[in-house]
Design brief:
Layout lengths: L1 H15 L33 E2 L2 H4 L10 E7 L4 H16 L5 E7 L6 H11 L5 E5 L4 H8 L9 E6 L2 E5 L6 H8 L5
Parallel strand pairs: 1-4, 2-3, 3-4
Antiparallel strand pairs: 2-5, 5-6
Amino acid sequence: MRLLVIVLLFGILLLSCNSPMPTTKNLTTKEKPSTTTNLTKTVADGMPPIYEHFDDLAYIFQQQTDTTYIINFWATWCKPCVEELPYFEQLTKKYQGQKVKVILVSLDFKKQLETKLVPFLKEHQIQSEVLVLLDPDANAWVDQVDPSWSGAIPITLVYKNKERAFYEESFEDYAALEKIVQPFIK
């Protein structure tokens, strides 16, 4: 009898481990998934949209429009990231109303979003779109952003349709950032 119970439990364990892996959809802006947040503040309170998993954020890298996307991965604890943020803000202001979109993807820690990120965004009056990515398994998604990315920040990806440029560096001034963006704005 004991052997039968062990065999049944083993069989149940084997069957439960065969659930299919979720697949990544090719999302468009209209299909953008809802964000998740368990924090007390909402987007209206200054909390940017929060993505628990990279797959939910992947749509920002797949847009096939005539818009130029400038996506920067950063965090408030990263000094070079913070130093270059004003240049991204300048881009946002310069190209306001044009087909240029600056997206700042924060990799700040979940426990510091309310105490560091939100106050930082308010203090610096960040106008660019900010999204928060909390997915801790960077090894699983870094290559999806760019296969050459080591995982260090800051990084910037500029793209328009299929044309892409990836920069794993911080920009020393606005002119350097503008120089890499300019070829995409036609």
